[in-house]
Write a structure and sequence with these properties.
The protein is of the alpha+beta class. The protein contains 16 helices and 8 strands. It has 2 domains: 252 residues; 151 residues, Reverse transcriptase/Diguanylate cyclase domain (Alpha-Beta Plaits, 2-Layer Sandwich). The strands form 2 sheets. Strands 2-3-1-6-7-8 form a 6-stranded mixed β-sheet, with helices on both faces. Strands 4-5 form a two-stranded antiparallel sheet. InterPro entries: DGC-Regulatory_Protein (IPR052163), GGDEF_dom (IPR000160), Nucleotide_cyclase (IPR029787), Rev_trsase/Diguanyl_cyclase (IPR043128).
Length: 507
Amino acid sequence: MTLRRFSVLAVAACALLTGVVVLVVSGVLERSTSVAVDKFSQLVAAVAALVCYWRAALRRQGTARRWRMWLVAATASLVLGLGAWIWGQVFLGVPMPTSTLAPLGFLLVPCLALGGVMVLAHGSSGSLTDHRSRVVLVLDGLIVVGSLFVLTWVSALESMVRAWATTGVGFATVVAHPAAYLVLLVVLLVLSWTHRAVRQLPMLFLALAALAQSASGWVFAYLVSQGVTTIPTAADIGFMASPVLLFLSSVAPGSPRRERLPADRLRAGELLHLLAPYLPLLVTGLFVVVGTATGVRLNPLEVYVGLGVVGLVIARQLFTLIDNVRLLEQLKDSRERLRHQAYHDPLTGVANRALFRERLTAALAGPEPVVVLFIDVDGFKDVNDNFGHAEGDEVLRIVAQRLQRCVRHEDTVARLGGDEFGVLVEGRAPAPEEIGERVLEALRSPHRTRSGEHLIRASVGISHSARSGTSADELLGSADAAMYTAKRLGKGVVVVHGAEPVEAELT
């Protein structure tokens, strides 16, 4: 449905709701007729919401279908509750049918709707992508519910329950029903800060339905606690509005536009999400402390629920601690991967020019001798031209592997760029000429790839720190100059800066 058509439908639904409310509240109709119009109008709207959610779910796949199926179950429960209520109040004449299925049906509506909200949030964000995150979210919800229960029980609920709700069914009707809608509303508000899908029109109208239902529910509970046996029809305005808002939620279009939250909005949403379970706990704790300080004694139920909430907070903190340890390990691994990527050649896996120069500078600062080999692969351009760059890349990887095998583990092999490699030898080592000959011998064997064999030779320039105070740039420059001298003399030649060239034997 387009936004324009939905706007027309929303205006028409609100106008129809207003007419029904005026008709019921004005006193024009008799009491029994007014009650019948009230409840039947709710039932019609609930059935319409059920049908629309069902049709919308069938037309979709994945998360879009799953969260709507939860709302199908929620509206079906509402239809069941309203049907039982109408049967008891209109046909059987029971003023408040606590012996029917109505309280159970009403109580399941926010619980099932909350499941749909969680499915939607889980499917639209990576923040709830694992089992641990879902467990933490459940713990947060239980902490909120437990805290609100203790707070409202100490302040008002106990007197309400004692006044009327002496059975479990009565408690569900008077207390748990509006409290569950309140929890649904709080969860929607919290998730709307960090989840784009929860800020769309369907969830907005679901939140309005929860607000309307909870408001009338608390008014109903208050009137019951005052001993009222006949609830005025005006107290049902929220009950009448809620099914209509659910219907609008079922047909409201979602926003196809993907938006990116600004960083400050994300930080504020994350902070609100972290504080959400603890704010009601703090208020409840202060309320209980003030009450006990002024002589109010806690009954066993309040003590047990309070201890349960404390246990949930401890479990929540344990999960948070586990998450923090996991995040620190992931951060450490990420830093190591970034450092490796920053200091290693992505093609061959050996050190890059930056790491080679860093280690060379550090080696020159020490007392041990330093030898640098500058190696250029001869004939590499022919491999690229005749066999392609993929084949050339494979040859470079083989060259890097052979260089690593022919030097010590503590020596550094680096790709300095293109087909040029460097080797840094620190401390006591064979003579520079011997190291160069070993490199030529390692590279002289045929390089076997998937496309065949390639005979690769190299020109090697060598320099060493003959005097103190030699810089990394000077030593690299000397090795580079010696390598170019080797290339001018022919392939398979080792030139040590300041010495005679050494030519490899051909086989």
